[in-house]
# Entry
Amino acid sequence: MRRKLGKRLHSLLRLSGTHGIVRRYAVVNGFDGALTMLGMLLGFYISGDIQLPTVINACLGVSVALAVSGVSSAYISEAAEQQQALESLRGAMVSDMADSAHHRAARVAPVLVALANGASPLLMGVLIMLPLWLAHFGLDLGFAPLEVALGTALLLIFLLGMFLGRVRGSSLLLSGLLTLLIAGITSLVIFLLGGA
# Structure
């Protein structure tokens, strides 16, 4: 049943031309989420002695806001694009198409694109916050919780870069290092501004 549903959703995405868009949105917004969390954590790190619950609540708030923004903005824009494409197809086919696979795809695709766009930064945020939660509940991480969370953010950014390299068919390591370079430049700017 689940496999059949997966195949059906996959075919609707292909029919609507949004298969690649879902992947792009997921990776781009995942990268945005990870880089935003890195920036927030660095800000807290530079600020000094800040209570762990404050860091967790701020990071959670930002992750939820990124998710809601991602879902709503992607749904609005993709629904408009799909409607326009469906209207063009209707005109070319001189048909209502209300019961067609294209009509179903135009309704389902914006929802799937929106979910991918919103879920990816939320997932990145939750994964990056995991060390903070574990430390908050008393688990000894061996390092300061903020440092472990920062390391997690950098690791996820590197893995997203590797995934992009795989999609592009280029070097996984080089692509991962490129995204780490972006994270490094971002960190340097935050440190320079934070020390001003």
Q: What stands out?
A: The chain has one domain: 9-194. The two ends are 58 Å apart (CA to CA). The CA atoms of residues 41 and 69 lie 21 Å apart. The first helix runs from residue 2 to 16.
